[in-house]
Specification:
globular; binds cobalt (II) ion; 5-stranded antiparallel beta sheet; about 190 residues; 7 strands
Length: about 190
């Protein structure tokens, strides 16, 4: 398992609601937490490791001291958004790119946990920001899509470098063609959505 980099097609695709969380998926979620820990991330969404499902994980430990708690958001819905604020964001799928992103300051989000229990959180600050960033991944949206034209211009070179690396990896056979990726994702969807 590894974190897929932009512009891998799975990162640009909308995910599907999970209808079941079997023991295999629970084991995978455990592995995603370990991977995120290694990479010192605070959130990872299913598409970032190649899964076409609506869920993401979060642990704010690397950004907020004393916040070492693991969260799984399955089939999340953002029900309310209020205020606006600007914060710097980065993403494990867009390495070395950081930019100020404007988003709602507070949100109300509902989701299911790993045991199928529904929960609702009223969030602000970094937690609200991280949830919105991960939620976007489930719709095939990366944070650079949220920048205004000045911001987009600032990251243009870095993005085209990632695009070049992706093309090179594909030429070298490290990444399958679109048709193969699509077929694999459809099989995964049939399994659990
Ligand atoms: Co991200």
């Amino acid at each position: 398992m590894k974190v897929l980099k932009y512009p891998h097609p799975v990162l640009l695709r909308k995910t599907k609601h999970l209808v079941r969380v079997d023991s295999d998926l629970k084991k995978t979620i455990r592995e995603i937490f370990e991977l995120m820990n290694q990479e010192k991330g605070i959130g990872l969404a299913a598409p970032q490791i190649g899964l076409p499902y609506r869920f993401f994980i979060m642990n704010l430990a690397y950004s907020i001291e004393g916040m070492n708690k693991e969260y799984v958001f399955i089939n999340p819905e953002i029900r309310k958004r209020s205020g606006m604020t600007t914060l710097e964001e980065g993403c494990l799928s867009l390495p070395d790119i950081f930019a100020d992103v404007r988003r709602p300051e507070k949100i109300v989000v509902s989701a299911y946990d790993i045991n199928g229990e529904e929960f609702t959180y009223e969030l602000s600050g970094l937690f609200a920001r991280a949830v919105q960033h991960e939620y976007d991944h489930l719709d095939g949206v990366v944070f650079t899509d949220r920048l205004d034209w000045v911001g987009k211009r600032a990251v243009r070179t870095a993005l085209s470098e990632l695009e070049d690396e992706f093309e090179t990896d594909r030429r070298l056979g490290r990444i399958p063609d679109d048709e193969t990726i699509c077929r694999e994702l459809q099989e995964l969807e049939t399994l659990r959505t």
